[in-house]
TrEMBL record:
It comes from Lacticaseibacillus mingshuiensis. Gene3D superfamilies: Chorismate lyase-like, Winged helix-like DNA-binding domain superfamily/Winged helix DNA-binding domain. Keywords: DNA-binding, Transcription, Transcription regulation. This is GntR family transcriptional regulator. Residues 1-65 form the HTH gntR-type domain.
Length: 235
């Protein structure tokens, strides 16, 4: 229940329903007819997404800086969630086939069997019709036995959630600068060796089993990477 409330609050924040602060816990309890504990868990989800600042004794304030930057990749949302404010992502599939984990050196990286069958999807993604990134993604077929053509042209993770009831519980993110190889340079219409930012991600389901690995090379002007972190107070 708290996840649905959290998503509803996120939509309201992005729509500008709350201009400066979130309503009080009491107001939200009344609005959603749930307990204080449920509201606190929902607020914590929104906070972890980087959309709120907590001020002791004053409540939760909207993080306007994160909302206003239209070219920000919010890693706090997790893979497959809202990527950029105010944008529509479309895809052009370059490769859609199957490979073994050992063929592409992912067996040791993900601690999986070298004979494990993977879906391989390479695609160019466009934000509001402008080239945004080149994504190379792999999905474990023992967890996700089927991907539809429609899903690889839109949101694969939405399909995985709706079809298999699998959502990402955690992910590892590695950001690095890479030099474009010939095949990458051709697809991105850039000279070989051009430096680009790359995000590698490993996605885990609720039982901590990896089911997806991706490398995404970004090619969007003025793109920023945002990640929210919360620090525990020390004694």
């Amino acid at each position: 229940m708290y996840h649905e409330i959290a998503e509803d609050l996120i939509r309201a924040i992005e729509a500008g329903t709350f201009h400066d602060k979130l309503p009080t816990e009491q107001q939200l309890m009344k609005q959603y007819a749930v307990s204080r504990n449920t509201i606190r868990r929902a607020i914590d989800v929104v906070y972890q997404r980087g959309l709120l600042r907590r001020v002791q004794g004053s409540g939760y304030f909207i993080n306007q800086t994160q909302l206003e930057n239209k070219a920000t990749l919010n890693l706090s949302f997790g893979v497959g969630k809202k990527l950029l404010a105010g944008g529509i992502l479309t895809s052009k599939v370059v490769t859609f086939d199957r490979v073994k984990a050992g063929e592409i050196d992912l067996a040791s990286r993900l601690r999986i069997d070298a004979d494990l069958d993977l879906y391989r999807i390479f695609r160019l993604r466009y934000l509001n019709a402008q080239l945004y990134c080149y994504e190379q993604a792999y999905y474990m077929r023992d967890v996700i036995p089927f991907l539809s053509t429609d899903s690889i042209n839109s949101s694969i993770l939405d399909f995985v959630r709706d079809t298999y009831d699998i959502e990402i519980s955690s992910s590892e993110n590695f950001i690095s600068q890479v030099s474009l190889e010939p095949d990458q340079a051709e697809l991105l219409h850039a000279p070989v060796g051009t430096l680009k930012m790359m995000l590698e991600q490993v996605s885990y389901s609720k039982n901590n089993v990896p089911f997806n690995f991706s490398r995404t090379i970004y090619d969007y002007p003025g793109l920023n990477f945002y990640f929210h972190s919360a620090h525990l107070a020390s004694n």
